[in-house]
Specification:
Two copies of one chain form a homodimer.
Chain A: H1 22-41, E1 45-46, E2 52-54, H2 56-59, E3 72-74, E4 80-83, H3 88-97, E5 106-115, E6 127-136, H4 141-156, E7 166-171, H5 173-181, H6 189-197, H7 204-212, H8 218-226, H9 233-241, E8 248-250, E9 264-270, E10 275-282, H10 286-290, E11 299-305, H11 306-315, H12 317-331, E12 335-339, H13 345-357, E13 362-363, H14 371-380, E14 385-389, E15 395-400, E16 405-410, H15 414-417
Parallel strand pairs in A: 1-5, 7-8, 12-13, 12-14
Antiparallel strand pairs in A: 2-4, 3-4, 5-6, 6-11, 7-9, 9-10, 10-11, 14-15, 15-16
Chain lengths: 420, 420
């Protein structure tokens, strides 16, 4: 980036926030459009909620893990509000309010921006985008398989394979059984799950004393983790039928951080990066919590972030090539209008308006310019054709820029020649 | 809306904020996609900026009209920040930082959310969406005509005609001449323009004393407004060439509220609603102000809001029909998979996965259900076809739901029969 020297820091975005210039925006569009296409093929319907929500939605209702990272403040009407740090409380709130209006199962997705005041490390951003997919009013294995399949196909759609990612799946129920057998009360279990959640990232010397507080020894834990996974047979059969068995592994250390999960939990893991690309789980109690019991509804969902996904897509050669092609295609023009005779500008503008109305992406010089310069602009813009208007009007020349071949045709035939 | 009684108010979005359930989201998507298609045909490139910006971007730099309406606060890092109330300062900041990287003219657009703490009246929202279109590095009449044409075509693309809207165009220069001739200093002129801006909405009894402070009588003002418009000849000729002359009127009372405008200003006006659908103007000094003179660049742009536009589209019968058809199409399924024999669920799941991978939008029952109920679900979802998998596998039945006609075919032929 070629930054002029005297510009002050305040012209940069806030730390952790991003400017999306056209090239970066095209990448975001490629990711969003791919997400949207796959979700729609699965018959999920798109929704969105407000960017700002009452702070209590995160503080009281949803476990509170994210409160320390909230962009929260008091608005001009004395309301305690927060920029949304995740979608789940919003979509649970929305479903609760209109629960009776929608036949179940409800399949919803959203693509939206979120805000967390994270420490500036590890490439973490303070404004990021997420795809959220949720299934309400269903507790079937078929429903869980449908959502896991969607999570897999969302990554396959970018060209990623089972070598690049897999799902790590678990059921929090296995820990309920483990802890129940040891007489550990339900209210202490979230703290225990935090230890399991960090097991992969923290050394034994950190985890072991924490386990001791629950009278669980390191050896006892390892023995439990080495046991065969509980029966996920019906779920596996559903995934096998879709040809997706190879993408799924069961792993008792996966519990996911958020307190509201109640059953099946999973993450999409990229082993080459050691990072999760997505995560989610069943949260059958959240809607009842939000509504003080007035509405109760089964819920199962996951979120995919844009930041780690883009890193992974750029690291794998063939997914990187696809991404770069999408950026190139987003900026390319169908045609560039060359005005070779300024006296014909009015006729040229009329023709260009017709071509654009037919859906062609067309640019042209806003003011008089030398013909050679106009062709340079056409090449620089990646235009497929130059439409040359000159003294021969109403005859025009059509030049295919890649092959430098040229043909003449009548102005009213241009659209048909350009294949529209 | 059928709201269960015991739900508390806190489950509703904050006042002035919106939940977009799928039906409302489909309307938003229809508007956004139409905007995007037209902007791309004009060779504008899409960008976006951060939702949160340093407060000083609005307080010190851009005239300050919107400061009283800011959602502003101090973040956890002691920064004074604000949710963006408009895009112009952000895009001017972005262009300034990378001015040297982009060949001029630069044609950029964005579709984004904005936040203003407005009084709850007149259907004004606190979170709303805007399309912003800007042209940088150009001061030609051709560039101004290009942007005005884009503003017109953005509304024609929804089916609106010259009966539904027109542009009211002016040049602030006419007021500079008027005020200069009366010896009124440049620093007092923004206050005078505020009077002109409100002339249409305020009664004479309010405006007249304000004018008197500038030693301008009511009669003197009316005489000036009755004078023929200054020469917009070249601009009119450009619009005439594009067949858009009928959409443009010149009106000296149009000055637009924002202080940073320097020359041509305009609004898109819907006479039947008495409301502006869009507004903008030339702001040639803003980039130099932001950069303390380090970068200077011509700039001309406008914004379209989503709220008034949707109201107008719903009020005009044929644009309402288009909007409703877009909502219907957004939710309709290509096919519904009917599993008539649960023993064939694995084969059905495999086939459905193939159909979805080919781009079809398909749903099916997540758990066993009676065949009649499955057909009801297919109808309710507006599916075009039912794909019936039963004991005859690998033969399947294809039912066209509108005509209730049915044909049998082999599973591997389904995709071809469905026209993919």
């Amino acid at each position: 980036m070629d930054t002029p020297a005297p510009i002050k820091l305040s012209l940069q975005p806030l730390p952790g926030f991003r400017d999306f210039y056209p090239a970066e925006h095209a990448v975001r569009t490629y990711i969003f459009e791919t997400w949207r296409r796959v979700c729609r093929s699965y018959a999920f319907a798109e929704y969105d909620g407000p960017m700002l929500e009452p702070e209590e939605l995160y503080v009281k209702k949803s476990g509170g893990e994210l409160v320390g990272q909230l962009f929260n403040f008091v608005d001009k009407g004395k309301r305690a509000v927060a920029l949304r740090p995740e979608m789940t409380p919003t979509v649970a709130r929305m479903l609760a309010v209109r629960d009776r209006d929608y036949k179940k199962p409800v399949k919803w997705f959203s693509i939206a921006s979120f805000f967390r005041y994270e420490k500036q490390q590890d490439g973490r951003l303070r404004e990021f985008c997420q795809l959220n997919c949720d299934l309400f009013g269903d507790r079937s294995t078929g429903g869980e398989a449908e959502l896991l399949s969607l999570a897999i196909d969302l990554f396959r759609a970018f060209g990623l394979t089972a070598e690049d990612f897999h799902l790590r799946v678990n059921d929090r129920g296995v820990w309920d059984d483990f802890l129940g057998a040891r007489g550990i009360a339900p209210e202490r279990r979230p703290d225990f799950l935090q230890i399991i959640d960090k097991l992969e990232r923290e050394p034994r010397a950190v985890s072991e004393p924490k386990l001791a507080e629950f009278s669980v020894s390191w050896e006892e834990l390892q023995a439990f983790l080495a046991e065969p996974a509980p029966s996920f047979g019906p779920l596996i059969a559903e995934l096998e039928a879709r040809g997706l068995r190879e993408f799924v592994r069961f792993d008792a250390t996966i519990v996911r951080g958020l307190a509201y999960y109640t059953g099946l939990v999973f993450e999409v893991f990229a082993p080459a990066h050691g990072r999760a690309l997505a995560g989610g789980g069943r949260y059958d109690d959240l809607i009842a919590t939000l509504t003080d019991g007035a509405v109760s509804q089964h819920a199962f969902g996951f979120a995919v972030g844009d930041v780690v996904l883009e890193k992974v897509l750029r690291a794998v050669p063939h997914t990187r090539a696809r991404l770069e092609e999408s950026v190139r295609a987003a900026s390319a023009l169908d045609a560039y209008g060359v005005i070779a005779d300024e006296a014909r500008r009015p006729e040229a503008l009329g023709l260009f308006a017709q071509l654009r109305a037919a859906g062609l992406r067309l640019d042209y010089p806003l003011a008089a310019a030398k013909v050679g310069k106009q062709f340079q602009a056409a090449e620089a813009a990646g235009a497929r054709y130059a439409v040359v208007i000159g003294a021969e009007w109403p005859q025009v020349k059509l030049k295919t820029l890649a092959t430098r071949t040229e043909e003449a045709c009548a102005a009213e035939e241009v659209l048909a020649r350009l294949g529209r």
